[in-house]
Amino acid sequence: MAVTIALSNQKGGVGKTTSAYVIATALKEMGYRVLAVDMDPQGNLSFSLGADTESATIYDVLKGELKPRYAVQKSTLVDVIPSNILLSSIELEFTGVRREFLLKEALDSLKGLYDYILIDSPPALGILTVNAFTAADYVLVPMLSDIFSLQGITQLEETIRRVRNYCNPDIQILGVFLTKHNPRTRFSKEVEGTLRMVAEDLQMPVLETFIRESVALREAQSLQCSVLEYAPDCNAVRDYGSLIQELMQRGLKANG
Ligand SMILES: Nc1ncnc2c1ncn2[C@@H]1O[C@H](COP(=O)(O)OP(=O)(O)OP(=O)(O)O)[C@@H](O)[C@H]1O
Ligand SMILES: [Mg+2]
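That is the input. Now the predicted structure with adenosine-5'-triphosphate docked in place:
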């Protein structure tokens, strides 16, 4: 059965999609069977993975109009269930009692086919993110070392706690990690120190690994190719490799 990881942070532009894209392709290269699920109406993960967003998407699946396996696209990088802007209407369209469980129920039928399922989520804590948390074994939180990011972390933890109480008792926070990080400036060191204090209070692990800035990462995403092939030695690719190792040392397993 696949281990499901949701990348989440309600703050925009912190590296959720980029992390899902690199981690998914890196796990695939390590030989695991990987599915990427785009739960963001922006469709950025679908784009990065070269998926077609005009045909079947996660929206059709959540609406119950398409069996999940028919929405899976075999992209050249990893298997992906894409999304597009239609997904943004879910908030208004779905008012049923089990609306938090739509994604979980869809992915249950695919879990036997993969080792890892990575879910990208939108920059909000609405029903799409709650669906991602309800379906996930783990949450992984990318974050920038800035003060606004720190302010949002308490709210994020509260949402996860609510999902744990009402929808998914087994959900675990794998950790918070810094992206586009430059550890050399005094300010980022200060923010990192504060993050460690805030996160400890909330019992959210802060990962040792951080991701450095790499232009090659942006280039690979715009070219819709694998950054592991495009720039295998760039800082960010090395950092994501270390991140995966750290996660595995912390107990993340395939087929958990
Ligand atoms: N380590 C990095 N080095 C350089 N650029 C990066 C890095 N990580 C992410 N980026 C770039 O930063 C921008 C925002 O990243 P990304 O789209 O992954 O964030 P996000 O959290 O998914 O945003 P949103 O909240 O809009 O979904 C993108 O242009 C991406 O290419
Ligand atoms: Mg994104």
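The domain at 3-249 is CATH 3.40.50.300 (Rossmann fold).
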